[in-house]
Here is the input.
Amino acid sequence: MSQLDRRSFLKLSSATLIGISVGGVSLHALAQEAIKLDDPLAVAMKYVAKSTTEGQTCGNCMHYAGDKDTGGCAIFQGKLVAKAGWCAGWIKKP
Ligand code: SF4
Here is the structure.
């Protein structure tokens, strides 16, 4: 393999690895689905999609990660919770 061929191969390999990594992250994000209200953990944590506790929503909970209507939650990993939701694990975002 000539020097030029080796460089081309390394560039292509790097680009392929980056593509696979980015694609994997996208697929992971797409794989997230909303937590179901009858999920055993949701039931145990008394999760609701619309908070009835004044001043407490997922959106202002320290476990919430996101800026849209739904986001990730450290307690319900791999699932999406509603920004307007609430559960017994609520802790005020600092
Ligand atoms: Fe919402 Fe509960 Fe998660 Fe906090 S811990 S973001 S209140 S589901």
Notes: Confidence is low (pLDDT under 50) at residues 12-28. The two ends are 57 Å apart (CA to CA). The pocket of iron/sulfur cluster is lined by residues 47, 58, 61, 63-64, 73, 75-76, 81, 85-87, 89-90 (CB under 6 Å). The CA atoms of residues 61 and 93 lie 5 Å apart.
